[in-house]
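Example 3.2
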Amino acid sequence: MSNPTGKGGFQERKQHINRRGRPKNFDALRELARMIAVDVAKDNKGQEIAIPGIDDRITVVQAILLQMSRDPRRQKEFLEIAFGKVPQPIEGTGEDKMIEIVVKYADGKSNNSKE
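Structure, written as tokens:
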């Protein structure tokens, strides 16, 4: 038996663990995406896209955001990009509906200790 712990094939796949962290080439991909995002947007015919009444040409990112703002299925996503996510309230189920959070540190102290 190649894996005496009985935890699947994990022991056999140890070489697949990413011990070096995030690939460095992802930074290059992100930088390329940022460069594309600020390029002037073009339509299917290769003509630069401009908003009627505005003299400026729009960028790729602006074109994407305009499409999102017009699509009802993506409007929530658009608003979250523009203004941040809506806070989700946390509700307790006890009698007083209060939640007490106590942080205990490795040295034994807590955030509410008088030491």
